[in-house]
Amino acid sequence: xxxDFWHQLGNSFSxxxxxxxxxxxxxxxxxxxxxxxxxxxxxxxxxxxxLFYTVPAYFLVIPYYxxxxxxxxxxxxxxxxxxDTVFTLPYALFILQWYGRLIPMEFDEAARVDGAxxxxxxxxxxxxxMAPALAAVGxxxxxxxxxxxxxxxxxxxxxSSKTVAITIAxxxxxxxxxxxxxxxxxxxxxxxxxAIFYALRRYIAAGLTLGGVKG
Length: 215
Known about the structure:
about 0% strand; elongated; mainly alpha
């Protein structure tokens, strides 16, 4: 059962980490473009993204599987990373837009007066001030990717590409499964997200405190 456990743990960590990074980067760029640059009808785009959650994930399994099969991404970690990123991106965009309203636009205008380009405003003004919200969004994306099972089970078939979530589920296929090994694997599997959460907890707490004071 656990012959390739550490390799599979690395696969799980790669999926979670890449989903977290892509969600933070894409949602922060989108929220900056829609809110800080005053794009027309930007609120329509952000609210329309939330409509994605009205479609159950199970309805998207077959078309998404066929899409990944057409592009030759079956058994690739990137197919799962793409799915998890799509699931987390609308919520992350919604949170970052609301949090961004707490940051005065005068900071952006002052940077532009000093000759900063939009990319420099994003990197030197927007990202540092949004650090607590980015930490919260990144933690959310990591937990979603870490706990996701359906798309991993359908898209990852070979033993070298499987994750720990799939391995733990395979323990239930037999009546004589070694429960002690399953509990040990589950315990180890819980440690990385807990460690990342505690590493980012002060940023998350700062974001919650700031939101409460400004509200």
